[in-house]
C-alpha cells in the first residue's frame, strides 16, 4: 500500500477506539484508517473470530493494532490509550441484565477518561445515545429535541427503562469525570443506527429491521423511532474530533418515522419478504413523530444519508451476510407479475 500523504487528515495521529468490533466502532475504524489515522482498537478478545473483519479493512495491516482490554480493568485501558492523540469511547458493557449494565457503564467510562487524562490525549469523543436525551414525559409535542434535553432519570427508573437510564448516567459520569480531570470531551448522541454491517453478527438495532423481513412478527407497533446511517455516526465522531471548536453534545439523527412508514418503505423495496401491514393497536390514534434538530452536526459539514437509502442498504447487507434468504430470479419475476 502506498504511503499515506501528509495531506490526509489523520496522518501521524493515533486514535484509540474502545470496543472496536461493534457495529458503530467497526465503521469508525474503517473510516479512520481511510483517512490515514493509526488506530488502536480495544477488544475483550482480539483473537475471537467475530473480530476478524477488522484485520481485513484497508490499511489495517499497516496501521491497526488490536489490544486486549476490558473497561473495568484500568491497567489494560491505560496500556491501550497511552501514546494516543485521541480516544473514541464506544464500548458498552455486554450483559443480559439491564440493571447490571449501569455500574459497569459508569465505571468503565470513568476508567477511560482517567486513562485519557493520564495519557494527555487531545480529545475524547464519547458515544452516548438518544436514550440519554429524549425520555421525558413532561416534554410537550411541539418542543424540538436538541442537545439541551436530558432523559428524566426517575421516569426511566419507574418505567424500568434501564437502557435509557444507563446511557444517561454514563454520559453524566463522563461529563463529571472529564471536568474533574481536565479532559476535552465531546459527546455524540446517535438515534437507532442502521446500515451495512461490517461485523459478521447481527446487533440489536439491526434485529429491529430483520424481524419485519423474516415473518417473525405479523404486526408493527403504533410507535415512532428516529434513524441514522452507521457511516454518518462514525463520520460524526471524526468531525467532532477534527474540529477544534466542536464542544458539548451532538444529536446524530436523520429522520423520525412511524413504524408504519418503515414497513411501507421496506415493502416497496423488498416485496418478496413477508413484511407486516397491520398495526398492533389499530384502534388508537397514530403516534406522531417528535421534532428534533441535527443542525449542530450539519454545521460541521455532515450530510445525512436519507433514511430510505439507509433501510435499503441495511437489507442488502443482511442478504450479503447470509442473514436473509435472497429470492431467486424466478421468485422475483413472479412477485413482479403478482404486483
From TrEMBL:
This is cinnamoyl-CoA reductase. It comes from the Eukaryota. The lineage of its organism: Eukaryota, Viridiplantae, Streptophyta, Embryophyta, Tracheophyta. Belongs to the NAD(P)-dependent epimerase/dehydratase family. Dihydroflavonol-4-reductase subfamily. GO terms for molecular function: cinnamoyl-CoA reductase activity; oxidoreductase activity, acting on the CH-OH group of donors, NAD or NADP as acceptor. It catalyses: (E)-sinapaldehyde + NADP(+) + CoA = (E)-sinapoyl-CoA + NADPH + H(+); (E)-4-coumaraldehyde + NADP(+) + CoA = (E)-4-coumaroyl-CoA + NADPH + H(+); (E)-cinnamaldehyde + NADP(+) + CoA = (E)-cinnamoyl-CoA + NADPH + H(+); (E)-caffeyl aldehyde + NADP(+) + CoA = (E)-caffeoyl-CoA + NADPH + H(+). Pathway: Aromatic compound metabolism; phenylpropanoid biosynthesis. The keyword Disulfide bond applies. Its EC number is 1.2.1.44. Residues 15-247 form the NAD-dependent epimerase/dehydratase domain. The keyword Ion transport does not apply. It holds the Pfam family Epimerase. Keywords: Disulfide bond, NADP, Oxidoreductase. One of its GO terms (biological process) is lignin biosynthetic process.
Amino acid at each position: 500500500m502506498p504511503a499515506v500523504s501528509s495531506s490526509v487528515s489523520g496522518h501521524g495521529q493515533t486514535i484509540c477506539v474502545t470496543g472496536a468490533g461493534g457495529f458503530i466502532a467497526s465503521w469508525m475504524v474503517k473510516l479512520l484508517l481511510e483517512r490515514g489515522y493509526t488506530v488502536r482498537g480495544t477488544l475483550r478478545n482480539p483473537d475471537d473470530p467475530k473480530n476478524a473483519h477488522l484485520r481485513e479493512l484497508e490499511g489495517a495491516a499497516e496501521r491497526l493494532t488490536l489490544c486486549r482490554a476490558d473497561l473495568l480493568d484500568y491497567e489494560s485501558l491505560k496500556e491501550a490509550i497511552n501514546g494516543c492523540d485521541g480516544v473514541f469511547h464506544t464500548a458498552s458493557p455486554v450483559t443480559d441484565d439491564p440493571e447490571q449494565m449501569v455500574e459497569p457503564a459508569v465505571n468503565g467510562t470513568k476508567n477511560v477518561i482517567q486513562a485519557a487524562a493520564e495519557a494527555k490525549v487531545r480529545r475524547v469523543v464519547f458515544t452516548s445515545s438518544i436514550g440519554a436525551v429524549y425520555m421525558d414525559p413532561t416534554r410537550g409535542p411541539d418542543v424540538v429535541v436538541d442537545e439541551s434535553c436530558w432523559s428524566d432519570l426517575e421516569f426511566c427508573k419507574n418505567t424500568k427503562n434501564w437502557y435509557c437510564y444507563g446511557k444517561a448516567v454514563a454520559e453524566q459520569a463522563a461529563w463529571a469525570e472529564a471536568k474533574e480531570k481536565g479532559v476535552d470531551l465531546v459527546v455524540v448522541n446517535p438515534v437507532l443506527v442502521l446500515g451495512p454491517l461490517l461485523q459478521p453478527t447481527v446487533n440489536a438495532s439491526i434485529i429491529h429491521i430483520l424481524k419485519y423481513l423474516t415473518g417473525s412478527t405479523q404486526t408493527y407497533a403504533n410507535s415512532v423511532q428516529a434513524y441514522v446511517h452507521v457511516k454518518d455516526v462514525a463520520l460524526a465522531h471524526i468531525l467532532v474530533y477534527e474540529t477544534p471548536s466542536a464542544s458539548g453534545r451532538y444529536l446524530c439523527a436523520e429522520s423520525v418515522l412511524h413504524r408504519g412508514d418503515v414497513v411501507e418503505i421496506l415493502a416497496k423495496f423488498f416485496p418478496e419478504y413477508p413484511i407486516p401491514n397491520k398495526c398492533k393497536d389499530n384502534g388508537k390514534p397514530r403516534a406522531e413523530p417528535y421534532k428534533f434538530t441535527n443542525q449542530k452536526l450539519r454545521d460541521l459539514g455532515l450530510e445525512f444519508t436519507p433514511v430510505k437509502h439507509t433501510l435499503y442498504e441495511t437489507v442488502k447487507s443482511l442478504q450479503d451476510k447470509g442473514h436473509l434468504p435472497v429470492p431467486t430470479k424466478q421468485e422475483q419475476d413472479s412477485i413482479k407479475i403478482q404486483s
